[in-house]
Amino acid sequence: MAETAREFRERILFKHSQNPFYDMDESLLHAPLSLRGAERDVGLLSVKPNVISINTEKTHDGLNFTQYMLAGSIAGMVEHTAMFPVDTLKTRMQMAREARGSLHSSVVKTFTSIIKAEGPTGLYRGIGAMALGAGPAHAVYFSVYELFKERFGGNMAGHHPLAHGAAGVIATIASDAVFTPMDVVKQRLQLPGKSYKGVADCVQSILRVEGLSAFYASYRTTVVMNAPYTAAHFATYEAVKGSLQELFPERTSEENLFVHLTAGGAAGALASVVTTPLDVVKTRLQCQGVNGAERYNTSSIWNVIKTISNNEGPKALLRGMKPRVLFYTPAAAICWSTYEATKSFLQTFNVSHN
């Protein structure tokens, strides 16, 4: 029986996968008549004399830049929505005026105080600003990360923590430029009182009273904080994920969720502890002047650290560490699991539509 065009294509791809230097031109001599004398696509390969062109529109896992943005956006929205109450606790604790004797000196007391005074909805103040910022910021975050991870060789076999860390740092610099203005609005709305009526009123008030620069007063601190956070986060995530996949190679497909949850959780926990003091500085800069909070003459990180240490003691720089770890450990696990699940869905979608 004569070989069909489909059988011929599959034979060529199989032989080329076994031997990259397989002579495709010679194989055309034995091709079905319908394939001779013309250029034919063979999957991602085009058969031309002595030329093999690769489709570069998609990266190593078959997704394009737009699809990375979509996956990242979904992951960011799921993560921040699920963990928003814990983020509110962190913000309240970091803005407490006194480290000792305050009603807001512990996670439990802060939670109880909010429920008694404001009800459950108090835990969700500012969620609108989060929704406006988290989606676009995470779209930029993950798409830039995947792009530079590919360029830095992070997708090659083995562990490449420097490549993953460097790609993560570039990604956070880009995403923080998108998220910081809405993060300022979110944190101000999370504070008690009725200083603002909502997202729009907060934005207008900041522009009218403090000017556009107020939205980026903490940007330098955010980048300085998130650069080591992200480097540690991505390097830890990729290392733990790779180790787990090596330990369970025959069960990787069955335990993907476990792998991503474990790796993401470990990365979030480690990175959040290391960067807590800078997160306190960021929160103080973003919420300065609200409800009588102290204002700073400069956005200098060192100046804010000295002011907090002198007025409240060095321990104040660690305030909010517990809710920060409680936030980032499950948040990172949720985010990575959602991101990888969305990527898997899009990969299946691409295959079914090719």
In short:
The protein has 354 residues and is an all-alpha fold.
CATH class descriptor of the largest domain: Mainly Alpha
The tally of helices reads: 12
Shape: globular
The ordered string of helix (H) and strand (E) elements is HHEEEHHHHHHHHHH
What is the terminal separation in angstroms? 28 Å
How many beta-strand elements?
A: 3
**Structural Rg:** 26 Å
Query: Strand order across the biggest sheet?
Result: 1-2-3
The helix/strand class is mainly alpha
Residues in β-strands, percent = under 5%
Domain tally = 2
* CATH level 3 topology of the largest domain: Mitochondrial carrier fold
Q: Are there runs of 5+ residues with pLDDT below 50, and where?
A: 20-57, 98-104
Largest sheet data: 3 strands, antiparallel
Mean pLDDT: 77
CATH architecture of the largest domain: Alpha/alpha barrel
| Quaternary | single chain
Helical fraction: 55-70%
Looking at this protein, list some descriptive labels.
single chain; 354 residues; three-stranded antiparallel β-sheet; 12 helices; 2 domains; mitochondrion; 3 strands; mainly alpha; Mitochondrial carrier fold
Can you offer a commentary on this structure?
With 354 residues, the protein is mostly helical. Strands 1-2-3 form a three-stranded antiparallel beta sheet. The longest helix is centred in the C-terminal third of the chain and has 33 residues, at 321-353. It has helices spanning 5-18, 24-27, 65-94, 107-118, 127-151, 161-190, 199-209, 219-247, 256-274, 276-286, 301-312, 321-353; strands at residues 41-42, 45-48, 51-54. The protein folds into two domains: 5-54, no CATH class; 65-353, Mitochondrial carrier domain (Mitochondrial carrier fold). It has twelve helices and three strands, in the order H-H-E-E-E-H-H-H-H-H-H-H-H-H-H. A hairpin with a 2-residue loop joins strand 1 (41-42) and strand 2.
